[in-house]
Amino acid sequence: xxxxxxxxxxxxxxxxxxxxxxxxxxxxxxxxxxxxxxxxxxxxxxxxxxxxxxxxxxxxxxxxxxxxxxxxxxxxxxxxxxxxxxxxxxxxxxxxxxxxxxxxxxxxxxxxxxxxxxxxxxxxxxxxxxxxxxxxxxxxxxxxxxxxxxxxxxxxxxxxxxxxxxxxxxxxxxxxxxxxxxxxxxxxxxxxxxxxxxxxxxxxxxxxxxxxxxxxxxxxxxxxxx
Length: 226
Description:
single chain, alpha/beta, 4-stranded parallel sheet
């Protein structure tokens, strides 16, 4: 079973739909705590390290074979938890893809997400041969208030407008999982990277690579072609 640690309930149907489309039969458990992001924005990600570790420990105690953190702001904190099972951050595969490009623009609606995302891209670039890309950041300052008010359409429209305003880039990175659908609304010809699908796929690959993990034999049967 894969546990997902969210800081917003809007991610639950998104990842359920991705599971149904790409990984049918996989058991997911969703853990939602919006206060983690609120406190991390105010005092920094390390301020919630204890709560993140406790949430992950609870997921493991509940039978999780791996944990995927879907919040980029607290992703590094989650990834650093020693839980006895793999703990992954949803944006790492996206960052690895961005690190291979020369000019990267990171777009976020929450300022606290920009630095962790840029740092992750730099970390991935250090592992490659292409060198560190040139990076710029764009904060869609008015979008988050719409998200908090429940105006998802307005939120995505604001993000899409920001994407269409980007120039001189080889790739655009959406720093938050909640922004993913804005890519479908934008008209920009610049490739736009988002984290949910690739992050979930990486977590599933990690699960399937360990045949000794509880439940993996069942998952392998479920994922075999009929």
